[in-house]
Amino acid sequence: MSRAPLIDGLQYANWSEGIFRQMRQGGLDAVHVTITYHETFRETVLNIERWNRWFERFPELILHGRSAADIRLAQETGRTAIFFGAQNPSCIEDDIGLVQILHTLGLRFMQLSYNNQSLLASGCYEAEDTGLTRMGRQVVAEMNRVGLVVDMSHSGDRSTLEAIEHSGRPIAITHANAKSWHPALRNKPDAVLRALGQSGGMLGVSTYPHHLRDGSACTLQDFCDMIARTADITGPQNIGIGSDLCQDQPDSIVEWMRVGRWTKGMDYGEGSAEAPGFPAPVTWHSDNRDLAGFAEGLRKAGLSQPEIDGVMGGNWARFYAESFGPLDARTPIRRAAE
Amino acid sequence: MSRAPLIDGLQYANWSEGIFRQMRQGGLDAVHVTITYHETFRETVLNIERWNRWFERFPELILHGRSAADIRLAQETGRTAIFFGAQNPSCIEDDIGLVQILHTLGLRFMQLSYNNQSLLASGCYEAEDTGLTRMGRQVVAEMNRVGLVVDMSHSGDRSTLEAIEHSGRPIAITHANAKSWHPALRNKPDAVLRALGQSGGMLGVSTYPHHLRDGSACTLQDFCDMIARTADITGPQNIGIGSDLCQDQPDSIVEWMRVGRWTKGMDYGEGSAEAPGFPAPVTWHSDNRDLAGFAEGLRKAGLSQPEIDGVMGGNWARFYAESFGPLDARTPIRRAAE
Questions:
Q1: Cβ separation A101–B49 shorter than 8 A
Q2: Residue of chain A minimizing CA distance to B42
Q3: Is A48–B101 a contact, with Cβ atoms under 8 angstroms apart?
Q4: Does B46 contact A105 at a Cβ distance shorter than 8 Å?
Q5: Domain annotation covers residue B333
Q6: Of A78, A131, B139, B268, which sees the most CB atoms within 10 A?
Q7: Is A228 inside a domain boundary?
């Protein structure tokens, strides 16, 4: 790459031309975007169709990212590469064949569960985490084969550790922070972060206020200091940004994320009855023009320039290059799939 | 290409390892296979999943063809390239966005109608052919844009002529013969064949007995003589094989082709109550090992060696190369889409 890339490992904004222009103003080379939560396969395809329209309408701003080479293409042509991800496996329904279908349509990340038990794994809000299911093990092997990254951001810790162990390729936790820094249910304990890093996996650190110490009042420097301490656990090559930026979204969207169609009641997730909506964003990350400013905070936190370049995007770029292609049959996978 | 390719422009067999091995024994470099008739989008995706399993199980025999370069790859690696097609537009339902989705999943041909009126065009069995519908014109332009070939094999003549006129890229009639030779409802009059050839489109000639003079008793030489006379109308560069081989299929399949879910009654299509099933195949084309033998019949019919090479596959290879990629925005299309 001509310069270190700037990559955000997870966003779910209310996409618009304005946001795409802010991506360009902020110098964002690539971003992993959530395209589906609780949607069925057909509904997920409708969401892909919507992205296809955006790619057709704004070819000077964005392009559909399928491989790490598209990050370089985005840099060379002054655009942002958009990589698709699913926050829940409802998009594959009960059909393992949809793993390859969705990968062909561009999906590059899929969470095995979202807060609740899924067909594949337990979510972090379940009272008991029973680990990977029978189908979960089969689907992880299929995801390994085609090049669809296992994402465990909203899964339980046992399920996450079993995914790290069972997966033949490194996995990701695209958006979460260290639980030792802020004990949110969605943040991850050191044991998970250590196993993730040792296996070559990636952590994306989140600026979503519920994941931050002091919430919306968290400072950029406190956040960057947390990154530096977390890098000591994961290794500095295994950490990037995964901001979970939910820009311009109405509160109906956070309700859809939490409730989907799985209950007729209400679930407040990380919020509460008193504060059911999206939390106010931190002042230092309200849109994509703020992202490049994180580098200075990382410098003050003691990271070296190569480490800063890695956290700001180089580590994701390397991980994308290793993860999105089909498993080469001539190269043994890291661990044999069971 | 190292040698002229051997290509069949339409088959719908009851696919099996045995048939794939016969393709190799017959030296078939590429084939356009029907993957869907009256199926919905989701059902069509299930059919693609089944093909994905075959590609995974038999990588030494077949590969998924996406561009004309895959014909060369198939030749160089001793395999058959499989190109997907739909005989009816039910797979896009009422959603123009599914045109690009299905092209991304590998679809390269789609008929605008199958015997009956569709959302896009009239079928050849309707009493009145009203030509392209409003949606039909939009979908043809979208197919032009992404590189999905318009196929009018089962459409009415007016619809076919309007598709030729409206399409910004050449279209195909992948499996039909000259009506002047055998006056079947599915065969095409000279006016259609002439307009097709003049626009750079392709006719695939069919060995399905209902399309043949004398039916199952038709001789290879009579068939090849028809090709030679039809080439005088379309031009010898605009004709290839499109056998409509339905090998190893049970009669329940021909009923599905004809009846789908559009009637609770029975429709015999080209058959009859007395002969409702598949007709007996011609003796000179019962499987893919027979195909190469057509060349000798074409030679006796008076075709030159370059013309024979074209009909046996070269013409389809050129058409595939021109048709399957996205429309280059820098190159004006042949006719402006309305």
A1: yes
A2: A42
A3: yes
A4: no
A5: no
A6: B139
A7: yes
The three-point CA angle A135-A141-A144 to 5° equals: 140
**pLDDT tens sequence for chain B (338 residues):** 458 999 999 999 999 999 999 999 999 999 999 999 999 999 999 999 999 999 999 999 999 999 999 999 999 999 999 999 999 999 999 999 999 999 999 999 999 999 999 999 999 999 999 999 999 999 999 999 999 999 999 999 999 999 999 999 999 999 999 999 999 999 999 999 999 999 999 999 999 999 999 999 999 999 999 999 999 999 999 999 999 999 999 999 999 999 999 999 999 999 999 999 999 999 999 999 999 999 999 999 999 999 999 999 999 999 999 999 998 754 544 543 43
∠ at Cα B13 (B9, B19), nearest 5°?
100
Instruction: Give helix then strand counts, H and E, for chain B.
Output: 12, 9
In a domain, B329, yes or no: no
Does B304 contact A at CB distance below 8 Å? no
Q: How many domains does chain B have?
A: 1
Q: Which of A49, A95, A100 sits opposite B97 (nearest CB)?
A: A49
Which residues of chain A have a CB within 8 Å of the CB of B46? 95, 97
**What are the C-alpha distances in Å from A218 to residues A4, A230, B296?**
27, 17, 81
Chain B residues with CB inside 8 Å of A100's CB?
49, 52
Q: Which residues of B touch A106 (CB under 8 A)?
A: 104
Whichever domain contains A257, its CATH number is 3.20.20.140
Tell me which residue of B323, B326, B287 sits closest to B8, measured CA to CA.
B287
Identify all chain B residues contacting A42, using CB atoms and an 8 Å cutoff.
41-42
